[in-house]
Amino acid sequence: MSTKGYFAFPPSSKSRPYPTFIPHSPEIEEFVDGGTPGKEQGTSASSAEPTDDEGHINRLHKERELIEMNEIEWVRGGGVLRDGRGRRDKARTERIRAELQLQEEEKEKMGRWRDYEGRWKVLVTSDKAISFTDVPWPLRTAPSSRDTGAFTLPTISEFLFESLSVRSNTLTKKSRIRSSILRWHPDKSSSIISRVVAEDADAVREGIHAVFHCLKRLQDNERDNNIE
After folding, report:
1. What are the pLDDT digits (tens) for 212-225?
2. Could you tell me the CA-to-CA distances from 102 to 28, 89, 162, 173 in Å, in that order?
3. Which of 15, 19, 24, 34 is deepest in the core (most CB within 10 A)?
């Protein structure tokens, strides 16, 4: 009996229309579980497969991808999947929902980091006067005007490292800390401080030193952990 994946309970009449079900081809299951279709036992592994078989395998892959994409979009829209007997497939639906939620969280993390990097590029390539709030501080939530008390080890490490948990990330904590120390070193921030408006100069200077101090502590902690 072939397995079929059913879509059920569209969220509203205004939602994007989806088919009532998309069948899972039994040929796909045979290909995944039983090896290459059409390949008999005893056939030499070095013999070339016919072009027709290669095209058939490609079609199976595309069909599987299409099925998975439709299921994901159906669940994204609030739908519920059903199994081959028409029963609610709660486990599969919840797995897709969890994946969608994780993707959204990763998107937000990377969005915050890209915004931070983008603001730094604007800052260093401009010659305009800046205020305390114009500085791209390494925090998830921008501090209020001249609030240097927000620069703590937990808040800074949370922001610096959150994007490293994204599954596509290849950077290490060590490299992130090192690049941040080079950026926030007080000796290299003179060009920024010189452009700060007079009423915010002390707060910006204090903020830079607070950030740098936290980064050095993170570096020491990372070094100690590696020694252990």
Report:
1. 999 999 999 998 88
2. 28, 20, 13, 21
3. 24
